[in-house]
Write a structure and sequence with these properties.
39% helix, seven-stranded mixed sheet, 2 domains, alpha+beta, Metallo-beta-lactamase, Chain A, globular
Amino acid sequence: MIIESRGKIGDGLFAVGTPELPAYLLTGMNPAVFDAGMTVMGPVYLKDVRALLGDETPLRYVFLTHAHFDHSGACPYLKRNIRGLQVGAHPLAAATFRKPNAVELIRSLSRDYEDRHAAQTGGEDIFFDALQVDILLEDGMDFDLGGGLEFKVVATPGHTRDSISFYIPKVKALITGEAIGVYDRNMTIHPEFLASYNDYLASLEKLACLETDMLLMAHYFTLTGEDARGYIAKSIARTRIFRKRIEDNLHDLHGDREAVVKRIFREDYEETGAILQEARPYLINLAAKVRAVAEGK
């Protein structure tokens, strides 16, 4: 089944925020949130966490799949408003948050949304400042949340170098960020190999080995049952198709990467209107995918 990422998803597992920018709350002895959307979502996440936990104080952790602005943006707000909250992320993500130019890019991309959605923040301080990562998450690490509930950290580079996924064996749930691609409005899978096509494909093949009953996607949807179990094989196929499309365009356009980006943007974004993403971040990501293929990464 394919459902919106909203409300209760499974026993002790909830989507908070909006389907466009969900964070996933795992309740229990030491509750945790996975990913933290854009800056504008901070007050929304906090409100939903309070409603589900009684108040925000039981929330112990926020775990990030990667450092992009639409997955980490609300993290500083949550840290400022929840005493003792700890942030876990890959060591490369922790290093990214210490780089002034990376922090400024997160702020710049966030402002595009803050200007349009100022009303939903209630005038609160949602500013993204340099984010301190408290827990460094490495591939294969088992993290105990107490009460017999744990998750495994799975390194899934390719979307970014710092991408990690989280597998929760008790409920056979997988939280991946964009390591597995995203759906468009036509429910076509769009691959997201921004850092490396080869690493991205290898990460998909690694995730395909996990027994998954719930697939909690980065944006809009949660998949359950057969849809969850069959998705990654489809994503692998779509990834190979998209690479071939880029290669064909690079050949037709004599290696002009900018021209390839413009052509695919026109075909997929302007002509069909199927992409569920703002133009600016979509173009940044598309250029990275074309570069990854052109340079054989």
